[in-house]
Design brief:
Strand order of the largest sheet: 1-2-5-4-3-12
Structural class: alpha+beta
Number of strands: 12
Radius of gyration: 49 Å
Number of helices: 3
Number of domains: 2
Length: about 280
């Protein structure tokens, strides 16, 4: 491009600028246009940023709130679990207190002492050598073999083997168990024999003409010298007459479920203790 053309273009630009300036000075159109254009530019630049900032802030606020709610839910869930465990513990303590209260309310027969014991193990059924339980009292606590073990509901059995701090109790349901009993109403004697766990007792040697009735309570007769007289053991559930025997075929149901027993009482005859002490002193 030649210098003349450049000078001509410069002259045209000066004329155009002066004309535009003069026109704007009179009308102020360009000032208003610049103001509006600037505002639009600023508006379209700032508005998306504001929208993004508002969205991010709302999202963050919701996230923080959700995290707080989640943390609060975890805290409340843990508190609920703790309360449930506490309620379970209190219910167990209440049930235990009721059982112990009943056990403490049980008064041993005259000339007999009683001490409580906890059941620590069970051995039931055909896989066990004996129908038995293990209690947390032994020789150190004065427990010897053949001591009656009872609850407020029924006779449980007798101590069989004793260790230093634990003892095995032979249950009345064991086939090796034999207890002299007498019916509470008709006073018919017999021998209560165990037939195994979950099976009824057999009442042996009940005379064919005995007035024994179904539903009668059977209590210890005290004849064998192991159990005191008058402790409940079982209830007559069936009586059959045999054509080839001089004795009735009598069955009886236990008064208590040995699987649910957690505390028992061991009885000891005071008269035996006195005799032993006198013999020792002599």
């Amino acid at each position: 491009m030649t210098p003349k053309k450049i000078l001509g273009l410069f002259f045209i630009f000066i004329v155009f600028y002066l004309s535009l300036y003069t026109w704007n000075s009179r009308t102020h159109f360009l000032d208003q246009l610049a103001t509006s254009t600037g505002l639009e530019f600023v508006g379209w630049t700032v508005k998306p940023g504001k929208l993004i900032h508002s969205g991010v802030r709302d999202f963050w606020d919701r996230y923080v709130q959700l995290m707080e709610v989640h943390t609060e839910n975890q805290t409340l869930r843990q508190q609920v679990e703790d309360l449930q465990a506490r309620v379970t513990e209190l219910n167990e303590r209440s049930a235990q207190a009721d059982r112990l209260e009943r056990l403490l309310d049980f008064s041993p027969p005259p000339r007999w002492n009683g001490q409580g014991a906890r059941v620590v193990a069970h051995d039931f059924g055909p896989l066990g050598a004996l129908n038995s339980i293990v209690i947390d009292k032994g020789k150190f606590q004065g427990v010897t073999p053949n001591l009656p073990v009872v609850t407020p509901d029924s006779v449980v059995g007798r101590t069989f083997k004793t260790g230093l701090n634990f003892s095995t109790v032979l249950l009345t349901s064991d086939p090796n168990s034999r207890i002299p009993v007498i019916s509470s109403e008709t006073r018919v004697p017999g021998i209560l024999a165990g037939q195994g766990y979950s099976k009824p007792f057999s009442v042996q040697y009940v005379h064919l003409n005995s007035p024994l009735q179904s539903g009668e309570l059977l209590v210890t007769s005290g004849l064998a010298g192991i159990y005191p007289k008058g402790l409940p053991v079982a209830r007559v559930s069936g009586i059959l007459r045999s054509e080839i025997s001089l004795f009735l075929l009598v069955e009886a149901e236990p008064l208590a479920d040995f699987r649910t027993k957690e505390e028992v009482m061991i009885l000891e005859n005071n008269s035996f203790l006195k005799i032993e002490k006198l013999g020792f002193e002599e």
